[in-house]
């Protein structure tokens, strides 16, 4: 079983002819409410891949919170660890997309930032009975630190997807087994330029020096790079026609966690995660584009 500690957001998406300037109102063409939030996306993807998963997080006591919980439950995620807070609204992301796919996004984290260290302590039985803990950075760093501490004290494997990027302290890094940044996040964390493969390798090694055991850097259509103390390996991406890259990182992390929780080798886990990431970019949306295990089994690249 995998425990995910993270965010649940409702994505409010308006498609418009163009993105408005400051002070301007533009009439939109269509509107969609899509369940999102990195934590919920990753938990949802894990369930769709046929793996048992518990989500720990917070929504508000409102209609959007109920929709998010129902949608995770329907997809097979255990939501006993999702609290309804009375003093905040459910997290939302307001997204405007133009016809070229350019977007502007504002996130109001709301209830996601109301998850407390005490909540994590109360849910520690979920973390200590899991095979693996998966986290992102859309809840407070205190909750990330505490979750990692509980998991490592119980000898569990931990994966931290450091998104959105934030500076991480020694305790967080020392309790992280696998760190999964993209190039931009790695640059911020390592304070080293990541615009070349050589730069990425050096930046990844810096993170190993800072305390993480292994680093898997996701590189979009360029695949990913694995780095530990002894070796570095570049994996080229599957060839697909990319339509919408939303949630590629989320599905990659979910698939990596699903594989590693079943004691697969890192090589096999990365191959599976790249396949799932590639399939996600061939469909639109976040939770709507996450593939089912049987679809992954049928997938062949071009
Ligand atoms: P993030 O969304 O966190 O920036 P990436 O865009 O790097 O994550 O995507 C995660 C993974 O998904 C990549 O490592 C790759 O394996 C796969 N992927 C993403 N974009 C593509 C693409 N255009 N073609 C093939 N695979 C892709």
Automatic annotation (TrEMBL):
Q: Cofactor note, please? A: Requires a divalent cation, most likely magnesium in vivo, as an electrophilic catalyst to aid phosphoryl group transfer. It is the chelate of the metal and the nucleotide that is the actual substrate.
Residues that, per the record, bind substrate? 9-11, 37-41, 138, 250
* Active site location: 250
Q: Which GO terms describe its biological process?
A: D-ribose catabolic process
Its UniProt pathway annotation is: Carbohydrate metabolism; D-ribose degradation; D-ribose 5-phosphate from beta-D-ribopyranose: step 2/2
- Give the location in the cell: Cytoplasm
Give the molecular function GO annotations: ATP binding; metal ion binding; ribokinase activity
Source species, domain of life = Bacteria
Q: Quick one: a GO cellular component term?
A: cytosol
Task: Tell me the cofactors it needs.
Answer: Mg(2+)
Biological source species: Irregularibacter muris
Answer whether the UniProt record assigns the keyword Disulfide bond to this protein: no
Indicate whether Cytoplasm appears among the record's keywords: yes
Q: What is its EC number?
A: 2.7.1.15
Entry keywords, A to Z:
ATP-binding, Carbohydrate metabolism, Cytoplasm, Kinase, Magnesium, Metal-binding, Nucleotide-binding, Potassium, Transferase
| Protein name, per record | Ribokinase
What residues does ATP bind to? 182, 218-223, 249-250
Domain (Carbohydrate kinase PfkB) ranges: 2-291
Notes on activation and inhibition: Activated by a monovalent cation that binds near, but not in, the active site. The most likely occupant of the site in vivo is potassium. Ion binding induces a conformational change that may alter substrate affinity.
Record text on subunit structure and interactions: Homodimer.
